[in-house]
Design a protein that fits this description.
292 residues; 9 helices; alpha+beta; 11 strands; globular; two-stranded parallel ribbon; nine-stranded antiparallel β-sheet
Length: 292
């Protein structure tokens, strides 16, 4: 269990749209009485976060040259995440330093908790990255069970359409940092037939350093479709097929101050076509304009 505390921050940061950066991923769990939360975070940490752009109307593309992908590699958030993972790839590769740490040391909370730092060298690297890219560190991890409380603490509006002619949603739990949050929920969608979707909704504020990523693998094999919701908000449907990880579908949005990624789960996890009606229905279940 000695790696628990070290790993939780990355799990949450990552699930939390680790700057929604397209770099690399990690996983983990929480502490003590919140074992169910631990499991959710650990599973989530293998899925979410990255930095993507939304633009255009409704057309499909799979070219890595697409502006829907290129902008992110130029962003400070992407560059910071990439540098951090380059550093981590060559640091304590056999976990010898980590194994020497005492349990009390690993569980100590500090300003580097979101980055799973367990040595001064790691903390120094986080500071260097934040200074180089003019980014702030994530802080103040909280578990939030109430949707209204999540919106209030994250300083966002009511973005979840919980009841309408086409959708009925149940918001489950949320995980919050100052600068990012993750919310899990279920939505019953009324299209040509009834669909039930489980999802993870992750948002990160621009200007924050998050060590999370979403592994798109070979971009040329990623199907992308740009879609405009009925409220005029542009989103991106992305479908990634990876031999090792299978097929994963995401709804991605960029706001003035935020990046948003919705990880499609549950009964809709069989989606392999970005033109699938269910993606449009799920996108319509959120008011992206409520998130600055």
């Amino acid at each position: 269990m000695r790696k628990k505390k070290v790993m939780i921050a990355l799990a949450v940061a990552m699930v939390m749209t680790g700057s929604l950066t397209a770099c690399q991923k990690t996983g983990s769990e929480a502490d003590g009485d919140i074992q169910q939360t631990e499991k959710a975070i650990a599973e989530t940490s293998k899925e979410i976060t990255e930095e993507m752009e939304v633009s255009g109307t409704e057309q499909e593309t799979a070219q890595p040259e697409s502006s829907a992908f290129l902008k992110f590699t130029d962003s400070s958030e992407y560059q910071a995440c990439a540098e951090w993972w380059d550093f981590c790839a060559g640091y304590d590769t056999d976990f010898a330093i980590l194994e020497q740490m005492e349990e009390e040391e690993l569980e100590a909370e500090n300003e580097y908790e979101a980055y799973a730092c367990y040595t001064p060298e790691m903390e120094q690297k986080v500071d260097e990255i934040c200074e180089r890219y003019s980014l702030s560190k994530l802080s103040g991890f909280q578990i939030v069970d109430d949707y209204s409380e999540l919106c209030n603490k994250a300083e966002v509006g009511d973005f979840c359409v919980r009841a309408s002619e086409d959708v009925k949603q149940t918001v489950l739990s949320g995980y919050l940092y100052h600068g990012a949050f993750l919310m899990e929920g279920n939505a019953v969608l009324a299209g040509s037939s009834m669909y039930e979707a489980s999802y993870q909704f992750a948002r990160v504020e621009k200007g924050y350093f998050t060590s999370a990523y979403l592994d798109f693998g070979d971009i040329s094999e990623c199907s992308v479709r740009e879609y405009t919701t009925k409220k005029g908000e542009k989103v991106l449907f992305a479908n990634i097929t990876n031999e090792e990880r299978g097929t994963h579908t995401y709804i991605i949005a960029e706001r003035e101050k935020s990046f948003i990624v919705i990880n499609v789960l549950g009964d809709m996890s069989d989606i392999t076509d970005v033109n699938d009606e269910r993606l449009e229905l799920l996108a319509e279940a959120f008011d992206f304009a409520a998130i600055p």
